[in-house]
Design a protein that fits this description.
Oligomer: single chain
Order of helices and strands: HHHHHHHHHHHHHHHHHHHHH
Distance between the termini: 40 Å
Largest sheet: none
Number of strands: 0
Structural class: mainly alpha
Helix content: over 70%
Length: 450
C-alpha cells in the first residue's frame, strides 16, 4: 500500500504542476494522469481490480438511486462522480439551446439598458445576481448562464469581460454556500446529516450574506480600473433587446425549459430526482423541442471540460483508495489537542486549503465521518462542525481554478470566447477574497456557536 500511496501522491503532484504550467491542454493532462492512476496505483501498487471498478464507478449509473433517490441514502462520491458529469452535460446542452434562440443576448441587452449601459453598475448587479441565483440553482448552471451573458455584453460595450466573470465565479460559490442545494458539498453534507434547506439558509446563509457585502466592495476596488471602457460607445445606436431574439417560438420554449430546470433543482430534495436525472431530462427536453438544431447544439457543447472532470475524478480516486484523504482528515483530530476553538479553526481552514487543490466533493464526503466522531469526542455540537465544514469546502474551492466545478466551467467559457485564464490571473484576486471570507466565517462561528 505504501507504494500505491507514493505513486498516487506523485501523479497528483505532477498533474497539478502541469495544469499550473499550462504546457498542454488540461483535459489531456488529467486523462493521462487518470490512466496512470489506473495502471500504476491500482495495478502495480495495489493489484486491485476492485479499486479500478470503484473508481470508474460505472455500475453506479445503472442503479435506481443514481436517477431517483428512493431513500435518504448517501450520495456515492468515490471515483468518477458521474452525477456531476451528467448534470454538467445536461446544463451545457440547455445553455447552448438558449444561446441559439438569442436568450442570453436578449437578457444582456435588457440588463445593459436597465442600468443605462454603465459597466460598473452591471458589474455589481451581476455579482449580486450570481450569488442569489446560486442559492437556488447549482453554481455550475449560474456560471454557464452569467459568463455567456457577460461575454455578450463585453462585445457591445467594449470592455474586458474577465474581471466580471472571475467575480461572478467567486460570488456563485459564495451564494452556493448559503443553501443545501446551492453547492455539491452541501448536498452531500445535508443528505448525510438530515439537514434541510432552511437549516443551511439560517446558518451558512447568514455568513454568506455578510461576506457578500464585503466581497462586492473588495472586487469593486480591485477591478474598477480594469473595467474602464477604453472607447466611448454610442448607446443610442444599440438595437432593442427584442431584436436579439432569433427564434421567437424557440425563445419561449427555451425559457420554459429553463424555468423547469430551476423548479426541478430547487425541489429535487423533495421530489427525489437526482441532479443526474434532472440534467439528462433537461438535455433531452432541449433537443426534443429543437429537432432541426440538434447537431448544431451538440457540436457546441464543451466536451473538453467533461473530459477534464473525468480524468480529475480518477486521480482524486487514487488518493481516496490509498487512504491519503483519510490520513489528512484524521490528522485534524490529532493536532487540535482538545481545544474546541482550535478544532473548529482547523476544520474550516484545512478544509478550505484542501478544497483549493482537491475537488471539494470527495473531500467533503471524506470529512463527514471525521466530524461526526470529533463532535462526540470533543463535545462540540455537530451543527457547528457541519457549518464549519460547509464553509471551508465551499469557499476554499474558490481560491484556485480547479477548486470547484463552477471555476472550471467559468474559466472554460471564457477560454472558448478568446479570454484564457491562467492560474496567476485567477488567483491574484480570488485567493485574497477567499481568505477574507474564511476570516469572516471563522469569527462568525466563534462568536455565534462557541
Amino acid at each position: 500500500m505504501l507504494l500505491a500511496q507514493i505513486l498516487s501522491i506523485l501523479i497528483f503532484t505532477v498533474m497539478f504542476m502541469l495544469i499550473i504550467l499550462e504546457v498542454f491542454e488540461r483535459h489531456y493532462i488529467t486523462l493521462i494522469c487518470g490512466a496512470l492512476t489506473l495502471l500504476l496505483v491500482f495495478g502495480l501498487g495495489m493489484h486491485s481490480f476492485q479499486a479500478v471498478s470503484e473508481t470508474l464507478n460505472i455500475k453506479n449509473i445503472f442503479t435506481i438511486d443514481f436517477w431517483y433517490s428512493v431513500s435518504e441514502a448517501k450520495e456515492v462520491t468515490t471515483g468518477i462522480n458521474w452525477a456531476t458529469i451528467f448534470f454538467i452535460l445536461g446544463m451545457m446542452v440547455m445553455v447552448e439551446g438558449m444561446a441559439r434562440v438569442g436568450f442570453f443576448r436578449w437578457l444582456c441587452m435588457c440588463l445593459a439598458k436597465a442600468v443605462h449601459y454603465k459597466v460598473i453598475p452591471v458589474f455589481i448587479t451581476f455579482m449580486i445576481m450570481s450569488s442569489v441565483l446560486a442559492m437556488f440553482i447549482d453554481s455550475i448552471t449560474v456560471i454557464l448562464f452569467l459568463a455567456t451573458v457577460t461575454i455578450e455584453l463585453s462585445q457591445l460595450l467594449k470592455f474586458n469581460p474577465l474581471p466580471m466573470i472571475l467575480s461572478e465565479i467567486f460570488c456563485a460559490n459564495l451564494g452556493g454556500s448559503a443553501t443545501m442545494c446551492g453547492d455539491p458539498p452541501n448536498i452531500i453534507i445535508g443528505t448525510s446529516f438530515g439537514c434541510s434547506f432552511s437549516d443551511f439558509f439560517m446558518n451558512t446563509g447568514a455568513i454568506a450574506g455578510i461576506s457578500l457585502v464585503v466581497i462586492i466592495i473588495f472586487f469593486y476596488f480591485s477591478y474598477r480600473k480594469d473595467l474602464k471602457v477604453k472607447e466611448t460607445v454610442d448607446t443610442s445606436s444599440f438595437p432593442s433587446p427584442e431584436s436579439a431574439i432569433t427564434d421567437r417560438k424557440g425563445f419561449v420554449i427555451s425559457t420554459f425549459v429553463f424555468l423547469i430546470a430551476v423548479v426541478l433543482l430547487v425541489t429535487h430534495a423533495m421530489t427525489g430526482f437526482t441532479v443526474a436525472s434532472i440534467g439528462m431530462f433537461i438535455a433531452l427536453l432541449t433537443l426534443i423541442t429543437a429537432p432541426r438544431h440538434i447537431p448544431e447544439i451538440l457540436k457546441k457543447v464543451d466536451y473538453k471540460t467533461l473530459l477534464f472532470f473525468t480524468g480529475l475524478f480518477v486521480v482524486v480516486g487514487g488518493l481516496e483508495q490509498t487512504g491519503i484523504l483519510e490520513i489528512v482528515a484524521g490528522f485534524i483530530g490529532k493536532i487540535s489537542g482538545g481545544n474546541v476553538y482550535l478544532l473548529v479553526a482547523i476544520i474550516i481552514w484545512v478544509s478550505a486549503f484542501a478544497s483549493a487543490f482537491i475537488d471539494n466533493i470527495p473531500f467533503a464526503a471524506t470529512m463527514i465521518p471525521v466530524i461526526q466522531s470529533l463532535s462526540v469526542s470533543s463535545g462540540v455540537s455537530l451543527p457547528t462542525m457541519i457549518w464549519s465544514l460547509s464553509m471551508g469546502t465551499d469557499i476554499g474551492g474558490s481560491a484556485t481554478p480547479i477548486g470547484a466545478s463552477a471555476n472550471v466551467v467559468g474559466t472554460s467559457v471564457a477560454g472558448k470566447a478568446g479570454y484564457p485564464v491562467g492560474w496567476g490571473t485567477y488567483c491574484k484576486k480570488a485567493l485574497p477574497a477567499t481568505i477574507i471570507v474564511m476570516i469572516i466565517s471563522t469569527v462568525y462561528i466563534f462568536a455565534v456557536y462557541l
